Each structure stands twice: as structure tokens, then as C-alpha cells.
Amino acid sequence: MSTFEELRSLGEKAVRSGQLDAAQSYFDQALAWAREHGEQPQIDLGLCNRAAVVIESGHGDGEVPHLREILVRNIDPFICQLAAYNISRHYELTKNYKKSLFYARIALDRAAVLGRREWLASTHNLIGNTLLAESHIDQASREYEQALELVAPEPTVARGQILDNLGYCRSLQGRHAEAYGLLYESLRMLRRFGAQRYEVSVRLDLCFAHLETGRYHDSRRHGMAALALAEAIDDRASVKNALYLLGEVANLSDDLSAARGYFSRLHRDFFPEAGYLPEFLLAVDIRKLVNLHA
């Protein structure tokens, strides 16, 4: 195995365990090696690997032009699949879901040519994400079901994320017993790998699921855990969702002081111009306003 492949392998292992900083370090080294010793396909592959981590960290604006160039000039379906998938993921994270779906379908086409089950699974999951973000719940569920059939059966971070996504859909569909089974399996899996970045999402989804079924104590417990994790990794979108849910839990538990506290923090930290917000949120059903996966 070449130095390039060794570094890529270490980077991919770090990604699978949710260790993005370590992954970027390995991919940076792999790209530097490719630029000094490799040919264009290796450089393109190195750029795709590094871009994936940068995008996942929320700083992908500068990566997209390079990935588009790779997609246009490269005929290797493996590299094209990576480039299209990464562009799609960037647009998902920046909430441009139509563009995300467009590039995800390109990635799915290239993955089908390659016939690699794990890439097909990850791309079906990505398509599901774009559909769920726009509240196409049944269509998203079918994509997640396909992803779950294709992904390797052994515990992985990727499988844990798919379980989480499908579990949230089941909550929205009112299929609560299925939702709990999927979400708790996801939580066990993600905690096993120490993937705190991805654990935030399943904690929020469990908070929502317990809120839907009136289990306010459990809802509060998972919401508080999600808030603490989100604050620790500076995930502002998840902090905001946790505050919405915790405010609703407190409101439905007749703890108006706590509810006002959470909603006032939302007003202060996220919507400073909306002075009416705390009283408005006390009067509406938050569950109908918030899409946790958008």
C-alpha cells in the first residue's frame, strides 16, 4: 500500500468514527503527497476526500468550485461519485435542497455503475435527507429503508445515522413503537463509537419522540443531553432546536417559568429582533413548527 493509500485509509477510519479533525489531518497529508508524487487522478481523489471533511465541518463554500471542475473533467465513476456526493452534502448543509437533490442523483447514478452497496446506501440516505428537509416524509422514509437494506449490517456510524433518520420519520408518521426501536438502536451505536457530533441528532429526535407520546421526563432528559453536546461542539442549529423542544416540554409540563427561560434564550441568542417570540411560542404547538432535519 502506498503512502497515499495508507493516509486515505487512516482518514476514512477517522471519518467512520466521527473524528473529523483527525480525518482532515490525514487527508491533508494525503493530498500533499499526491501533489508532490502523484498524478491527476490521485490529486482529484485527495481533493474529494479533504473536501468531504471540510464540508462536514460547515466550511465548504470554497470546496464546491474545485469539486465541480473534477466532476466535469473526470471520467472515473468513483471520483465523480465522490465529487457529486460532496457537492450534494454541501448544499444539504446550506439548505439548498433542490441543488442537493440534483447532485445526489448524479452521485447515485455513478454509485450504481460501480455497484458498491455502501455508496448506494450513503447516497439513498442523502437523498432521503433532502426530501425530509422539505417535509416529503413518506418519500424520505422509502429512501432510508433502501439505505438500511444496503448498508453493512454490523454496527457503524453510518448505519447509526440511517437508523436515526428513519426513526425520526417514524415519529412523524405516528409509528412510535418503531421510532423508539430505531432511535435507541442508533443511540447505542453512536455512543459505542464516541460519535458525539452525530449523537446530538438522535438525542434531539428522542426528545421529540418522547414529547409526542407525553413522556416529558424522558423528553427533557434527552433534550438536556442534546443541548449540552451541541454547546460543547458549537452546533448552533442543534442548540436552537434543543431550546425549542425543551421550551415545549416545560410548557406542556406546566412549568411556565422554565418554558419562558428557554424561549427567552431563543429570542436573545437567535432572534433578537423578535421581542414577541417568548409569548408567541408559549401559545403555539412547537412540534408543528420545527423540522429537526432541515
Helical amount among residues, as a percent range? over 70%
Name of the level-1 CATH class of the largest domain:
Mainly Alpha
Number of domains: 3
* H/E element order: HHHHHHHHHHHHHHH
* Biggest sheet record: none
- Rg to the nearest angstrom? 20 Å
Cα distance spanning the termini? 41 Å
What does this entry look like structurally?
By secondary structure, the chain is mainly alpha-helical. The chain has three domains: 115 residues, Tetratricopeptide repeat domain (Serine Threonine Protein Phosphatase 5, Tetratricopeptide repeat, Alpha Horseshoe); 77 residues, Tetratricopeptide repeat domain (Serine Threonine Protein Phosphatase 5, Tetratricopeptide repeat); 100 residues, Serine Threonine Protein Phosphatase 5, Tetratricopeptide repeat, CATH 1.25.40. Helices cover 78% and strands 0% of the residues. The protein is built from 15 helices and no strands. The radius of gyration is 20 Å and the shape is elongated. It starts with a helix and ends in an 11-residue tail after the last helix.
Outline of the structure:
With 294 residues, this protein is mainly α. The chain is built from 15 helices and no strands.
Which SSEs are present, and which pair or pack?
Elements: H1 3-16, H2 20-37, H3 40-56, H4 64-73, H5 77-93, H6 97-114, H7 117-133, H8 137-150, H9 157-172, H10 176-192, H11 196-212, H12 216-232, H13 236-252, H14 256-269, H15 277-283
Helix pairs in contact: 1-2, 1-3, 2-3, 3-4, 3-5, 4-5, 5-6, 5-7, 6-7, 7-8, 7-9, 8-9, 9-10, 9-11, 10-11, 11-12, 11-13, 12-13, 13-14, 14-15
